[in-house]
Each structure stands twice: as C-alpha cells, then as structure tokens.
Write a structure and sequence with these properties.
The chain has a single domain (about 5-320), classed as Rossmann fold, CATH 3.40.50.1820. It contains twelve helices and nine strands. The protein has about 325 residues and is of the alpha/beta class.
Length: about 325
C-alpha cells in the first residue's frame, strides 16, 4: 500500500467541535496497579468509554521531560470528554521517573503497561486488538518508541509535540529558550529531592531540575546515565527516528511551529521518515502554536478544535 501523507496548516475558519449528542461529563477514574517493582505500586487510571461493548482503547502517556508529573497529567478535560463520549476507553499510565530510573526501565514500564492492558482486556472492557498509543511531549516520545518496541504493534501512534531523537543538539546542547530564563544552579535543581522513582501524584514536579537540564544540555544524560557525545550508539534503541521502517504503525503528529521546548524540526523530520518508509501519516501544524498548545487554549479555539477533529477522524479510521 502506498503512503498517505497529509500535512495540514490549520486555518482560522474551522468551526469548534461540539460534543456528541447526549455526551456526559468525564466518568470517574478507575485506578488499578499494573505492576509492582521493589515494593512500589505503579498505577494506571482507566476512564471508561461510553457504551457497553468492548471499546477501542487509548494508552495515554504523560509528559514532563521523563522526570516529573504523573498519570494525573491527562489530556485536557475537553479532549478527554470527547474521547470517552466517542466510545474510547482512555488508560493513563504512570512510569518511574528519571533521574533515579533510567530510560531502559522507563520504556519497560510502558511495555508492561501495554501487556497488562491486553491481558486485562476483559476486565477493562476493551478490545486488545484496537489500541492506540498517544502522548504529549516526553510522553509522545515514549509513544513513538512504543510504535516499534511493542509487540504486537499498536494500531496507531498519536504524538502531541513529541520528538524522535534525544541526542540531537536541541537536547544535548544548552537550549536558547531555557537559557534565556534565570539560571538554575545545580544545588537548586537537585533541591527538589527526593528524586526517587515514585511517579505518584504526590511526587514533586521538579520544574527547576528540568530547566537546569535544558540550560546545561544535560537532558539525555540525566535520563539515561550515558553521554550522547561519547556514547552515541547507546542511544540507538531509544531514538524513534532511527526505527521508522515499513511496518511502523500509522502515525499522527501535532506540533506548533512556534514550539519553544521541542523544535518543530522534530515533527518535520519524523514526517519525512514516515514518508520514506511508506507509512500512512498526518502532520498537523500551525505557525502560532507553542508547546502544549492544546492545554493553553480550549475547544473554543477554532484552530485547536479543528486539529482535534482530525485526531478523532484518524483514530476512527485506524481503530474501527
């Protein structure tokens, strides 16, 4: 099958996306433990889709630079309402956090969450053959990793402002954007201890640690324990841009051209790699969107609403 490459520049004339008729508020979370490691419970929140049949499911991975926040960093409420009202069950997972936990174990948590979803499909009322993986920022990076690491592959990958490499200059050299902020000293960065791997909702957000890592170009080293300049080959298994080959799942990329955290070039490079491998994909962008554009706006923003309508169309095609 030939590739379908659809690149969108979302215009201002799009209409806001209404909730489906009869849609209700987001159901309460159903919290489960999907694995235990060294006495630590690692949890997932299940937000069940409307209706009684086994639902297609979205495995949702939160962002935070791999080192902060938790599973409670869900999609914006209006997005979650539309997912569940449309019939998708959303499973938001937590994973152990860097720097105490390194990249291989973080990826393993995602792998184990996916295996758990498939094994527990009857009790979760989901269809294990219809699972998409979605994330924002670092969670989108993990979703892109999941596209080639999970077995069987998910039916689709949706990346909200994610990235395909972690060794490029954008991450391994000081960020101009973060360097324009007041400098964070090493002692202040690590004063957000404890830095244990516990990803629970009570964990501190560690914003200063992330800012410090970007000001010093230390993000890949802190999350991996390896130096991208002297050990670039170590990172090869963890860079999606190197693993987009025929057989990779259909993929949707959403990223703003004004992103100050993850450069838009990441989405452009991923789209080109998907095109070369003949993978069905879409790139949705806008010149005014910054990082986390859908959190900073709402469904009242016609451009964001139009983009989200494309996400629903994409999922409907891939999961139904």
């Amino acid at each position: 099958m030939s590739a379908t490459r659809r690149s969108f520049l979302v215009g201002t004339a799009a209409a806001a996306l209404p909730l489906p008729a009869g849609a209700q508020a987001v159901p309460e979370r159903d919290t489960r433990i999907y694995k235990r490691v060294d006495g630590l419970d690692i949890k997932a929140d299940i937000i069940h889709g409307a209706g009684g049949s086994p639902h297609p499911a979205i495995l949702y991975i939160h962002g935070g630079g791999l080192m902060m926040v938790s599973r409670r960093a869900m999609p914006p409420r209006w997005e979650l309402e539309r997912f569940t009202a449309t019939g998708y069950t959303v499973v938001t997972i937590e994973y152990r956090l860097a720097p105490a936990t390194k990249l291989p174990e973080i990826v393993q948590d995602v792998t184990d969450a996916y295996a758990w979803m498939r094994a527990q499909a009857p009790s979760l009322n989901i269809d294990p053959t219809r699972i998409a993986v979605m994330g924002m920022s670092a969670g989108a990076y993990l979703a892109l990793v999941a596209g080639y690491r999970l077995n069987p592959h998910p039916k689709a990958v949706v990346s909200f402002y994610g990235y395909g490499d972690i060794t490029g200059a954008w991450a391994s050299q000081p960020s101009a954007f973060y360097s324009s902020k007041p400098p964070v000293a090493e002692n202040d960065a690590f004063s957000t201890l404890p830095l244990e791997a516990d990803p629970s909702e009570t964990a501190r957000t560690r914003n200063e640690l992330y800012t410090y890592s970007r000001q010093r170009g230390l993000l890949p080293k802190l999350v991996s324990g390896h130096d991208p300049l002297t050990e670039p080959d170590w990172f090869a298994p963890y860079e999606p841009i190197r693993h987009i080959t025929p057989g990779y799942p259909p993929t949707m990329l959403l990223q703003g051209q004004a992103d100050t955290d993850v450069p838009f070039e990441q989405a452009r490079a991923l789209g080109a790699a998907l095109q070369r491998s003949g993978i069905e994909h879409q790139l949705v962008t806008d010149p005014d969107w910054d990082h986390a554009f859908d959190y900073r706006t709402s469904d009242k923003d016609p451009k964001v609403a139009a983009a989200f309508a494309l996400v629903l169309d994409f999922l409907a095609k891939q999961l139904r």
